[in-house]
Amino acid sequence: MIDPDAVTANLAQVRAEIARAAADSERDPGSVALVAVSKTIPPEGILPALAAGQRVFGENYVQEARAKWPALRAQHPDVALHLIGPLQSNKARDAVELFDVIQSLDRTSLAAALAREIQRAGRRPLLMVQVNTGDEPQKGGVSPGAVDAFLAACAGTYGLTVEGLMCIPPAEDPPSAHFGLLHAIAERHGLRHLSMGMSADYPAAIQMGATHVRVGSAIFGARPARA
Ligand SMILES: *Cc1c(COP(=O)(O)O)cnc(C)c1O
């Protein structure tokens, strides 16, 4: 089902598109990290991306990442893994062990669990707070009006260093207003990293200041339905 040549070609195209979007907004293309979203993609789909030098990957499910990545990482120890999906507090231990970046910090119970596991493991993934810029009830993320208090609690109560923000705009909205909002919140708090933009809209996100774009289907093709 996975065509390795297609992955290689798609990846080259996404890289070119990132370079173009960065140039359009007079940004250094090196200031935009491509997070290749490999959720549901089996190792044979990931290998061509690794062969082409891709080293930053995003996964949504702790369990799936745990099954796939240790073997791939044995071959490529310089891979950085980002958790971009919702994280249950009872999976915080696995997440701290496995991921270099956790982008989906979005509630105080999770902040407490992560603080505990970071302390225990002596390993400190870079943390980003997910913001629910569209205030959608079914979606994870801190609502924009609660972000200031949440960031204060992360630092003050839990001793966590948050270094960026992430958002997933509502599918039916034009994304730019959401990207602009995320940018403004990050600026207000002096946060360096902005994870925004997916296959459909990453060039726009780069124009709005994204430092991380999360691109799945444009690289790996349409995902198989999740069982
Ligand atoms: C699946 C996923 C992506 C990638 O989406 P594509 O449209 O396939 O690029 C990015 N971010 C998050 C949080 C995701 O769950």
From TrEMBL:
UniProt modified residues of type N6-(pyridoxal phosphate)lysine: K39
Ranges where the Alanine racemase N-terminal domain occurs: 2-224
Keywords associated with the record: Pyridoxal phosphate
One Pfam family linked to the record: Ala_racemase_N
InterPro entries for the chain: Ala_racemase_N (IPR001608), PLP-binding_barrel (IPR029066), PyrdxlP_homeostasis (IPR011078)
CDD domains in the record: PLPDE_III_YBL036c_like
Protein family per UniProt: Belongs to the pyridoxal phosphate-binding protein YggS/PROSC family.
Function: Pyridoxal 5'-phosphate (PLP)-binding protein, which is involved in PLP homeostasis.
Name the UniProt record assigns to this protein: Pyridoxal phosphate homeostasis protein
Organism: Methylobacterium crusticola
